[in-house]
Amino acid sequence: MMNEEVLSILWRVIDNDIPLVNDDMTTFLVKDGEITEEDLKIWNDAVKKIKEAYKKVNYNQNDAKSLLNSALELLNSIKPKKPFPPEVKIRFDELKNSVSKCIELLNKT
């Protein structure tokens, strides 16, 4: 049961949240110099880990949890030069909260 909820949250993150935040990151944040190419690389690494965790949830929860923890650390390490615009901050924080929720759920199993 727990896995279904984790999969559902991760699918929403992959299908909806990541593309939106990715657009934010690549379009105006990098162009405006608010985040660096290094931050963009960190973002892309975090996305890879989230997608990999999604594939592993059903057969290796420890790996999935480890990947999600690593992704969350990466996401938390992204420091824009000036605060994100409100709508970007909301999307970015929602994504991080969803990853945290999945970790929490996996810790309960």
Describe this structure in words.
The model has no long low-confidence stretch (mean pLDDT 92). This protein is elongated. The protein has 4 helices and no strands. The chain is an all-alpha fold and 109 residues long.
List the helices and strands and how they pair.
Layout: H1 2-31, H2 37-56, H3 61-77, H4 86-107
Quick synopsis:
The protein has 109 residues and is mainly alpha-helical.
Task: Write a concise keyword list for the protein shown above.
109 residues; 4 helices; mainly alpha; single chain
Proportion of strand residues? under 5%
**Shape designation:** elongated
Gap between N and C termini, in Å?
A: 10 Å
Helix content: over 70%
Helical stretch tally: 4
Q: What would the average pLDDT be, to the nearest integer?
A: 92
What class would the helix/strand composition place it in? mainly alpha
Which residues form runs of ≥5 with pLDDT under 50? none
| Main beta sheet strand tally, sense and closure | none
Radius of gyration: 14 Å
Care to count the β-strands? 0
Which H/E pattern describes the elements?
A: HHHH
